[in-house]
Write a structure and sequence with these properties.
Elements (H helix, E strand, L loop, with lengths): L2 E3 L7 E3 L2 E8 L7 E7 L7 H11 L9 E6 L3 E7 L6 H8 L6 H20 L2 E2 L8 E5 L7 E5 L6 E2 L10 E3 L24 E3 H8 L1
Amino acid sequence: ERYGFNRSTPPLYQNRNGKLIKCYDKQNPGDELVAKVYFNGAWMRDERLFIDILHKLNAQNSNILKVYLTFFTETKFCIIYEHAFYGSAAEYIHKNGHGSITEKICQGWAKNIYQAIDYLREINIAHRSICPQHVMLVKNPVNDQQIIAKLWGFRSAISLNSERTHIMQLQPCWMFSCNAMFNFQAPEVFHNECSSYYDAIDADIWSY
C-alpha cells in the first residue's frame, strides 16, 4: 500500500515478457521510482536466487540502483526500484552522441562502476553481465546538474561460495552465441567444451 502507480501514464517500455512503469512512494513522493513487471513465465532463472541477490544488495551501496520492494501476484513478479532518469549508458550515448560525453564524465562513471564491482567482490556476488546496457545513469542527489552511473541488470548474477546455494567462483564456460552483450564478456567465458571453467569474479573485472 506504500507504493502507487499512475495507470493513466503509458509504460516506459513494454514487450511480451513484461513492462517498465513509473511509480511513486506515498511516504517520500520526491523519490523517482519505477516498477519492472515480469509477466508469468517470462524468465528462466530460479526467482528465489534472484530475489535473494536483490535483497542482499538492497540499499547497501550507492553505486547500485536501490531496490525498494519485490513481490509476486498470481500472474506477475514485480521489482520496484530507483528510476534511472537518463536511461542506460548505451541509450544515452546513442541519443546524445559520443561527443557529448567528456573524458571527465567518463572518468566519473568509470569510478562509480568500479566501486560497485569492488563491493560485489566483497559480498561474493558475480554480476556476469556488465555492459553499457546495464550501466544506468541517474541524477546526482547532491547536484542535479550532474549525472552519475549505477550498476543494474542482475538477472544473470550469482551469489558465490554460499552454504545454501553451493555456487562456486569457478563457473562452467558458455557456448558461444551471437548476443550483443557477449561482446563485453571475457574471452575465457566461452569454450566449446562444457567441462571447462572460468573465474566469474575475474570475468567481471575484464568486462569492466
